[in-house]
Amino acid sequence: MAKNKLDLLLKLETDKEENLRINYVQAQQNFVSNQQKLQGLNDFRLEYSQQLHNRAKQGMSCESIKQYNSFINKIEEAINQQATTVRTAKQVEEQRRKLWLAQQAKTKAIAKLIEKKAIEKQVKENKAEQKVLDEFATNIFMRRIAS
Question: What residues does each domain of the chain span?
């Protein structure tokens, strides 16, 4: 009965570990996705700044320059917001990784306990079997001596 309880516990903990692994993988994907968005914003800002530089060489009105700079400032605000999102996503990823690893250790400990119990049971059974064989051999030996 105890073995069944341990097996059930192992199944529950294994399921929990799998769910935590899935959560961790999703957090990794979210982090990578947010990093890519941040890189895209940085690339866009650079491209837009280069456009401003190239057009300014050809001559632009002050109003156009102000509009370009205003838009670049908005891009930089978006970059700052996205950088915050990336940092948060990294923290979530790390937290979920730690939870998954802790659960993995717990699951391995239960599996190890089950293995230890199985070995103890096998040793006990082997000793009992050896005892029966020893008694049988002793009985045969005693009969031979008595005859």
Answer: 2-106
Residue pair 45/75 in contact by the 8 Å Cβ criterion = yes
Q: At 20, list the tokens.
A: 């935590």
Q: How far apart are CA 116 and CA 105, in angstroms?
A: 16
Asked if residue 2 lies in contact with residue 120, where contact means CB atoms within 8 angstroms, the answer is: no
The answer to whether 41 touches 79, Cβ cutoff 8 Å, is yes
pLDDT, one tens digit per residue, over 51-80 is: 988 888 898 888 988 998 999 999 999 999
In whole angstroms, give the CA distance from residue 1 to residue 104: 25
Query: What is the value of pTM for the model shown?
Result: 0.76
DSSP state for residue 99 in the 8-state scheme:
H
**Quick one: how far is CA 11 from the chain centroid?**
18
